[in-house]
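Hi P.,

Sorry for the delay on this. The queue was packed all week, but I finally got your sequence through. Input first:
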Amino acid sequence: MWRILLGEFLGDLRSQKTRVFLTMFAITWGTISVVLLLSFGEGLRQSIVRGLLNAGERIFMVYGGTTSKEFEGLPKGRRIRLTEEDLELIASSMPEIDMVSPSYGRWGTSLEAGDNKTTTFMEGVYPAFEDLRRMYPAAGSRFINQRDLEEKRRVLFLGNEIAEELFGEEDPIGQIVMLDNLPFTVIGVMQKKFQDSMNNGPDADRAIIPASTFKSVYGYRYVSHLLLRPKDPARAQFVKSDLFRVLGRKYKFDPEDERALPMWDFIEDEKITNQVGLGIEIFLGLVGGFTLLVAGIGVANIMYVVVRERTKEIGIKLAIGARKRHIMSQFIFEALALTLVGGSIGLAFSTLVVLIVDSLPGEDGAMVYLANPKLSVPIALTCVAILAAIGLIAGVLPARRAARVDPVESLRYE
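Then the structure:
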């Protein structure tokens, strides 16, 4: 039976080349629209999320705030100032915390290497800061380690752009930089990364030293903020509540007082960003889907024309014993074949475009978002399912009409 259906389809293909070409072109164009819009939408979502995570890998940035509620006889408006010792309390009281680091920050820090001078935002941190903020060292360099921290070493980790500003093309590793007129040895330079969210400027322009060294040089007691990462991001809300409970007990504020501990919640921001990205993908998919739907309507119209043109042929087949299901199979097969062949061409072309665009350099500006399309398996499977549904629907209605043709009337059809 399938050989017969295929033979009839190829025969119609040869006799109606223009009509078949235009039908397949409409399906191909609709498929290209759906696939490219979904792929660029997925790439945009991934770029936005990556830009956020490169500023903070599923962490909480916790700041000291001001109480907004009275608590246990204490007035509101009290200032909460966090210290490095709070991390020890958190680590001992909250087993769901995975990594921690303080951040001692200082604007206007001067850096001098030879004749090159600049100022920047400098931070004193723990070794875990590398993973918490995705400040990974380039090849041949390293981040600060536990020994640097324990021995209060004067070592310096630089963002890639400030390293270039100070040293140009020269390798900065092992070089001496005068930091606020004190000599520090450069131990690492950050890998270049895309970052669209930031705290006190981009990481590419900052300097990092051990927290212990920062305290010994500048004598700071209070941190700028604390960085915490939960072991399980799904438990983020519980961890936040527990954090307010632990620090609220120490600093005597209401655990429900959110203004006492202002917080940048990267986990929640990631969820929101993914939701926004998904919304953009759905919108773009609907736009492409409507284009494909119009193409499907075109296939259905063509199949109705085919039914009218072949009314006599259908009547003869019915008169000599063909069953209605055979007639329906013929037209459904033709509609599916046109749809799937056109869709396959469109899918192949779209895949080629995605691969070419994705290979283009896109590290700066708008190209970070635009030159990053992603053709995922779900997108491809969704397009195949849509094509199959359109082909089936476009073929069923004309096929049912063909199967209801009266053999006697069809022979008199002009």
